[in-house]
Design brief:
The structure holds two protein chains of two kinds.
Chain A (H helix, E strand, L loop, with lengths): L3 H8 L11 H28 L19 H8 L2 H33 L5 H10 L5 H15 L5 H5 L6 H11 L4 H9 L4 H12 L1 H17 L2 H6 L8 H10 L5 H21 L1 H14 L1
Chain B lengths: L6 H34 L2 E2 L7 E2 L3 H7 L2 H32 L6 H9 L6 H11 L7 H8 L14 H26 L3 H9 L4 H12 L1 H16 L3 H6 L14 H10 L4 H27 L2
Antiparallel strand pairs in B: 1-2
Helix pairs in contact in B: 1-13, 2-13, 3-7, 3-10, 4-7, 5-7, 7-10, 10-13, 12-13
The chains are: A mainly alpha, B mainly alpha.
């Protein structure tokens, strides 16, 4: 699988081959363009509606006649979305940092150390990929109940602090770090922790970035477990809060769209900034993980 | 003490020091709960009272529960509709996008953008689209053309495809990207040889491209199958007034598990359902390994 990274890079460039600008190519381009526009329509309508006045909401026009940020002011002044946003940021950030540290440490250890029990640990972690989250939520809930973790940040975060997926992604990438580098660092008198942090980690930065994006996005959008473990409105994450908000009887659609936009726009902005990087990450993770 | 160890022994000490917390984590947060879930599935427990041994009672109840069979059927309908549709669509998009140069990156971005959205937010957007006139976008557009209204979420036949659509939509971009990477990995010499032999595009597609894409196809099929078997966020949010409705027409297995455990507090019964889900996913994964090995 060592030819994956060139593939990922090649993917970022348009193919140099066909130069012909015949009718077929033009039709192909037009159809793909229409399809692409259709793909982003739900997002476009969500943002457009969040900028409309109530009386305009049920018009099918995409561009609001009189754009307003009134809905955003209303939703944010309500205060709940503000807290849900903060909760989601904190939880997704801490979980991402934990995954980056532990998954890479475990991946590095399994890749570069020879010790008794290595194969067992490797297979044990690999086998957890087969266990669906849905099977674990009941025991996790009982565990949280007996330890008093319900309705807390720790309760929301603890199941995702390490992932087998991340561990294997990192292990794959540490294979490309030459053993000579590690040996040389050992001779220079660095201890194993320093070698991991100062020698190996900088060499797998692209993989760390890909993992960070996956873990952050996954936790930002996570729904089932936060829904189960939280009770009080203050502890909700954005998806759980939005779900309850939309379900309230008197909430208008333009406000729901505003809430949906608040939960989606941050990830869209991150994507637009790091687009090439994220797509490369998806390819790396998809093919290596 | 440490100084007297050989290099190899020091390595062992370091390795286990690095692994201590993770091993504890995987034991307590993954393996113990797995065993616990299986154990609870053989017990009766409503969270408040005591746990009593139930033997196979929960599984018998499941076997005789008409709702379970409806849910089981729905779960596979999600899988059997969602996986082929998204596979074919993403392949067609990737195949043609791969042949274009003009604004290639921009088009790719359009297709990938939905993957970055949150399922809950998009479920609400689509739910709004599906409302009756004068609210919903789709019915408003239909009304504009003078076409009769369609009941999307209220109809027992239309609701499941209506819920599935945003799930397919959101996953498409990811599959397109994976397919394009797979297409790029095929050596151009195959195509050049085909060109010299004067082979038509259809033969190239069916004899070269698709056979060589087999590992990619297997990966996408398994990845999306597991996703559709575990569908929950979209269903729950598009039917919050009557989760899984109308008349359980959209209810997938995960929603039934959630309902049984956290609304009905029948932990034993819910655990038995999770064991069934686990078994289904395990079988799908084993089939994958089988298919990958034979390539």
């Amino acid at each position: 699988m060592s030819d994956i990274t060139p593939t990922a890079d090649a993917l970022l460039m348009a193919k140099p081959a066909p130069r012909s600008r015949n009718m077929g190519q033009i039709i192909r381009w037009l159809l793909l363009f229409i399809g692409g526009i259709a793909m982003v329509m739900p997002i476009a309508y969500m943002i457009s509606t969040s900028l409309k006045w109530p009386h305009e909401v049920y018009n099918v026009n995409l561009i609001p006649v009189e754009p307003t940020i009134e809905n955003y002011t209303y939703v944010l002044e309500d205060g709940r979305f503000y807290w849900w946003f903060v909760n989601s940021i904190i939880i997704a950030t801490i979980t991402t940092i934990c995954n980056l540290l532990f998954d890479s440490l475990v991946g590095y250890t399994l890749c570069k150390f020879r010790f008794p029990g290595r194969t067992i640990v490797f297979i044990a972690i690999l086998s957890t990929l087969m266990i669906p989250t849905e099977m674990l939520v009941i025991p996790w809930y009982l565990m949280s109940q007996s330890f008093g973790w319900l309705d807390s940040y720790w309760g929301i975060m603890f199941p995702g602090l390490m992932t087998a997926f991340g561990t294997f992604l990192m292990k794959q990438f540490f294979e490309s770090v030459p053993d000579d580098f590690i040996e040389a660092a050992r001779i220079d008198g660095l201890n194993e922790l320093q070698i991991w942090w100062t020698v190996a980690m900088p060499l797998v930065k692209p993989a760390l970035a890909a993992l960070a994006i996956f873990v952050f996005l996954g936790n930002w959008t996570a729904f089932l477990w936060p829904l189960i473990v939280t009770n009080s409105v203050d502890m909700y994450t954005i998806p759980v809060g939005l779900s309850g908000f939309g379900d309230e009887a008197d909430v208008a659609w333009e406000l729901i769209m505003t809430g949906a936009a608040i939960s989606t726009i941050p990830t869209l902005i991150v994507f637009l900034i790091f687009q090439r990087f994220i797509i490369r990450g998806v390819v790396m993770a998809g093919l290596k993980g | 003490m440490y100084r007297n160890l050989t290099i190899r022994q020091k390595q062992i000490v370091w390795a286990w020091a690095f692994l201590a917390i993770p091993v504890l984590f995987y034991t307590v947060i993954r393996f113990y709960p797995t065993g616990n879930a299986i154990l609870i599935s053989f017990q009766n427990w409503n969270l408040l009272g005591s746990r009593t041994w139930a033997g196979l009672e929960n599984y018998e109840k499941l076997w005789n529960d008409p709702v379970f069979w409806k849910v089981f059927q729905n779960t596979f309908v999600y899988l059997l509709l969602g996986t082929p549709i998204s596979l074919v669509l993403s392949f067609i998009i990737a195949y043609h996008l791969d042949k274009l140069r003009f604004m290639h990156g921009f088009l790719r971005m359009l297709y990938f953008l939905p993957f970055m959205t949150s399922a809950v937010a998009m479920a609400w957007v689509w739910r709004w689209f599906y409302q009756d006139v004068p609210i919903g976008l789709f019915n408003n557009i239909l009304a504009g053309f003078g076409i009769p209204q369609i009941k999307f979420l209220q109809s027992t036949t239309n609701a499941l495809p209506a819920v599935l659509a945003p799930a397919v939509w959101a996953g498409l971009g990811f599959q397109v990207i994976i397919f394009m990477a797979g297409l790029r990995a095929i050596p151009t010499s195959y195509y050049e040889a085909a060109k010299i032999d004067g082979v038509g595009w259809w033969t190239v597609l069916t004899q070269i491209t698709i056979p060589l894409l087999r590992p990619t196809i297997v990966f996408i099929v398994v990845f999306s199958s597991i996703g559709f078997l575990r569908i929950f966020d979209h269903v729950f949010n598009m039917t919050t007034n009557n989760p899984g409705g109308p008349l359980n027409a959209t209810k997938p297995l995960v929603l039934m598990i959630y309902d049984t455990a956290f609304n009905g507090f029948d932990m034993g019964y819910a655990a038995a359902q999770t064991v069934v889900l686990f078994t289904i996913l395990l079988i799908v994964s084993l089939i994958q390994l089988r298919l990958l090995r034979s390539t």
